[in-house]
Amino acid sequence: MIQTPPPVLDVRNLWLSFPGHGGDTTAVAGLSFSVRPGQAVALVGESGCGKSSTALAIMQLLPDTARFAGEIRLDGRNIVGLPRKELRAMRGSTAAMIFQEPMTSLNPVHRIGDQIAEALRAHEQLSYKAARARALALLEQVRIPDAARRLDAYPHQLSGGQRQRVMIAMAISGRPKLLIADEPTTALDATIQAQILQLLDELRQELGMGLLLITHDLALVSRWTEDVVVMHHGEKMEQLPAVDLFSNAHHPYTRGLIGASIRLDRSQHYRKRRLPEIRVVHNPDDTYAFSLEQREPARLAPPLLDSHPVLAVKNLVVRYDTPRGPFTAVDDVSLRIAPGETLGLVGESGSGKSTLSKAVMRLVPAHEGRIVFKGEDIGAFSGKDLRRVRRDMQMVFQDPYGSLNPRHTVGEILEGPLAVHEVDDARERRKRVLDMLDRVGLPARSVNRLPHEFSGGQRQRIGIARALILNPSLVVCDEPVSALDVSVQSQILNLLVELKESLNLSYLFISHDLAVVQYISDRVVVMKDAKVVEENDHLHIWTNPRHDYTRALINAVAREQ
Amino acid sequence: MSGLRKVAGSLRRTAVQAVPTVIGIVILNFFLLQLAPGDAADVLAGESGAATEETMHALREQFGLNHPVLVQLYNYLNGLAHFSLGFSPRYGLPVAELIGQRLPGTLLLMSLALGIALLVGIVLGSVMAIFAGRLPDRVLSILALVFYSVPGFWIGLMLIILFSVHLGWLPSGGAGTIGVDIPGFAGLLDKARYMVLPATSLALFYVAIYARLTRAAMLEVKSQDFVRTARAKGLSPTSITIHHVLRNALIPITTLAGMHFGSMLGGAVVVETVYSWPGLGRLAYEAVMGRDYNVLLGILLLSSLLVIAANAIVDLLQTFLDPRIGVR
Prior knowledge:
The complex is a heterodimer of chains A (about 550) and B (about 325). Chain A has a 6-stranded mixed beta sheet, with helices on both faces. A 6-stranded mixed beta sheet of chain A has the order 18-19-20-15-21-22, sandwiched between helices. Chain A has a 4-stranded antiparallel beta sheet with strand order 2-1-4-5, covered by helices on one side. Chain A is globular and about 70 Å long. The two termini of chain A are about 35 Å apart. Chain A contains 19 helices and 22 strands. Chain A has about 550 residues and is of the alpha/beta class. Chain B has about 325 residues and is mainly alpha-helical. A two-stranded antiparallel ribbon of chain B has the order 1-2. In chain B, α6 packs across α8 (about 185-220) and α12 (about 280-290) packs antiparallel against α13 (about 295-320). The two termini of chain B are about 15 Å apart. At the A-B interface, α2, α3 and α6 of A face α9 and α10 of B.
């Protein structure tokens, strides 16, 4: 019989709470799980489920006010209540952690070689020179190209993927027995994402580390981990082998998450099927009930492909002036959107898709080409003409936190566009605000509340209401669901489809998430390096991609799944 | 090295851009001063008790005050082009010489005051940030508020009463022991003794500003992701505070310090008066009272040059402190 080695991480009945003004908030409630050496375990759940608090608790990086009960055994030793000095010795050497945002997780004013050397010298007596040599070896180990030169680079000189590699190099510098990765690839593009996870997987096997992967992305889990712990409201819903996640999940919440998440290989489309939504009911006795709600598909008229397009962009060029000379962000791009059509725009960060959307909205100037909106060339419009056109084309933004003025009530936010566009009667404005709130599924009493009182999904509903209150015919959605949880994502996508049905909208839907674009689009345009590389309808682009880049994108996602 | 060449290039560009700025400032100042009633001849005549029409005319003739305004401006600019700041009717000396007498002492006093303010302010601010919300923070916050709100002359007087009158440790005014010429190190020490009190009373106000700014900047940096990374690496709190928090907090502090250096030059009249320190602030004040426009224009020109120089230095310092800002 093979003897199983003792776990490197053993969490036993962990309770975690934060004192607040309105009483304690419980972040984690009675959580138990363990990670063996060399094993990869995933902690899965939506925002606020306590997965990140658990990770920070294992590193003892929570604020001093946090209250613990239970045990966290790292390498056999309970670390709850250890003196600070011993905790410091543990951090980075027994357990190490990498974070979600590689952009902000490195100190911008220090060279990356020095930041790695600093981690090394915190745990070992090393000369500066020896530490630098080790840092170089580590950079090579995480496969940073041209490592010797990169050693003296500053974080801002590296790409997001490279920065995350530097974070990983720093984390493995102390040869930790456990590596905690908190959403390590959420901020990265699909192709980079796969490379980083591959690297983590190889390092785990090379170094025999336990890996605790914290993520909201179910597709990652099934491929890169062995065991999955599903969490909701601080409790463990279920624990199961990763291979069984999609086939054998028992808990209704897990099944709900799986049902609500969109996958490229399922080829779902909004004209055929609505997305199922998870309903979570918080019972009065503090228990939760979960159910999956299937909805009837919307009955939509097919887009009028032969009629005059709502929007036609012809040979558009947008340049920015940078210290290193002009930079072409959009290069000779043409596209058209028919009435009632949803055009999906896919591309990785820096491909120019956001600039394109801003140029269409006339928020940045175009240098060449034409923007024809409903038969009018709006490229040279200004003042009154531009205002008249903008009434008819609106935008939904990515970040539901940053795009709403925190000091305006929802009523003021929604009335703003009406007032600008000369709806002078206050009662009329009020009526339209209430009507719009009802359409996006928010209660009428929201009018007097401020944005921070709403959840991310509700705020995105406010953003959509703001865009739609002027009855536009074209709505530009710039990554409208990428900041949202899976269950909220399906609600918002369903809402967009419902509104399209009832208001006869056309969408320009921008996203880096291929599965979402596959679901919501009638036609898809793929952008890379400021150019359109491929354009096709939603049936053919996924099955018959013609361009290498499209194929690479699809493969990167398909491999995950 | 390409880094050094870039720095030299950036300094050269600043110098070239400074020329039109300075000319604009001179012309603006010239016309602003013309708006004030009276001229040096009026004041001289007033101080001597009486003057005839002829004496007044002779005085104006002597100082070139009888020409039309534009001719006077042309004459002044022409002088500047030949590196001459003109002549002071009141002191009977070339303006350059007058300023030259006062400048080294003033610069020394300003640099010392700013140095003290930065050092003490950053240390106090760091302590406040480390103990944010606790007793040391509360006490120092009140102290900073006191320094910030109490007028400079009062602090100056109190320092004189304590250190000169009661303790007798330090001289109460002047810039050096009069009548003796002490050579070498002892001479420096003598000058330094005269500088301690004025520099301190000048610095206290700025200590308060820097302490509060340092505290705010450090607390802001403390909540950033890379500080959490540093903690996850297992670094000691001291190392985190110095290398990661304070290092990043220095960036906004240098910006403010650069602005203060320029404004301190003209803003020290009160302290200079309290300590009878022969500085540029007092010279400027006396020039205003005596309608000695040549002197005043010279001082204003000098301080605008200093502001430009201070800005250039701060810009360079910023690129050194924050690698994301490239030297161009």
